[in-house]
């Protein structure tokens, strides 16, 4: 029987995997945060248009990212077994899968723009948001290709290069925003669309950069035949999609709930929608960094599953829960203490600042729930358990959070704050349920192994 490692040992192993992913996630989401800050200087209407477009983009983006997540646990399990042939096949099929998913989702987003005028949003929001949405929709293809290579590298426990590439891309995005939004140094003044072009170019850079790294890294030399894409087998996509599609569904249910909240904010007007964008950009920072811990948990749990070491599997998962609780508690404290300051970074309109400040307090309250639920999904994904978590997220967000948000926001007339309290309730239910499921499945495997 394998030695049961201490929590300190698990913490160190998970942290070494997690912190580069957390920083790369931070760099990734900072693209959107910087866009919001720089667009906010143009006015609340432009910020509201950005919110409307990005919330729709977020649904498709997170589904595509979720599908690529099917690569990571399979690579981690194969790496645990030292099955190099399978890892090569996973690289090949992961590349093909990300290309196809990127194309399909991008085309679907183009079609979606025809429905924008029927969503009861302010006219100026639709007018500004539609061309911007076309540009960021195009950026989804290189982003999903990047994700395919990223999930392969993370499954092999190689996380730092992704971090460096993402940070460089973030710097490129800031530079392009400065030049194209405001028309500095002789560049055209494109306003909101300038932010879209900055995002598109930086994501192309990310995809090409990580492709080059995976292709040239010495540790991956054995797997270079995986770049020969014409030797694929259709049946090899099935186990990847068996994990990836439900995972994409999990992300869609959560991100879709926040997108629906944005639509409801639009029913209240441009000012609440702009305030929502400020609060959601901050929440995205902590969420995406917490998802770095979740990604590390997927790899750690997947490795232990491949080794058949279920005691350490459980401890690795629970270590991730402890880490995310500590991290999100810090984020919660910062949000609540500085709730009045953060909105002033984005806008100067007092009404927007007032609403955003109150939403940031609610965001602070649900940080622990948000962190636990995302790590719960990652830990269960490492065990290839995706169906039940998908049902849990569907019920929590669309069976509970959205109806409660509508009742609180409109029936009881609590306004923007009521909409966010509904999201708080859904996140909390999901967090508790996913945590219970992980520990129950881990205990079942331990008992079956002992028996």
Task: Write a short abstract of this structure.
This protein is 83% helix and 0% strand. With 451 residues, it is mainly alpha-helical. It has one domain.
What does this structure look like?
By secondary structure, this protein is mainly alpha-helical. It has one domain (7-450). It has helices at residues 7-40, 44-68, 71-81, 84-112, 123-138, 140-155, 160-182, 192-216, 237-268, 270-307, 310-337, 342-346, 350-365, 367-382, 387-411, 415-450. α4 (84-112) packs antiparallel against α6 and α11 (310-337) packs antiparallel against α14. It is globular. The mean pLDDT is 90.
**What is the arithmetic mean of pLDDT?**
90
Largest sheet: none
Helix content: over 70%
Give the strand content: under 5%
Number of β-strand runs:
0
Tell me the structural class. Answer: mainly alpha
Number of structural domains: 1
The helix count comes to 16
- Based on CA atoms alone, the radius of gyration comes out at 21 Å
Distance between the termini: 13 Å
Helix and strand sequence: HHHHHHHHHHHHHHHH
Contiguous low-pLDDT stretches (5 residues minimum) are: none
Outline type: globular
Protein topology:
Elements (H helix, E strand, L loop, with lengths): L6 H34 L3 H25 L2 H11 L2 H29 L10 H16 L1 H16 L4 H23 L9 H25 L20 H32 L1 H38 L2 H28 L4 H5 L3 H16 L1 H16 L4 H25 L3 H36 L1
Helix pairs in contact: 1-2, 1-7, 1-8, 1-10, 1-11, 2-4, 2-5, 2-6, 2-9, 2-10, 3-4, 3-6, 3-10, 4-6, 5-8, 6-8, 7-8, 9-10, 9-15, 9-16, 10-11, 10-13, 10-14, 11-13, 11-14, 11-16, 13-16, 14-16, 15-16
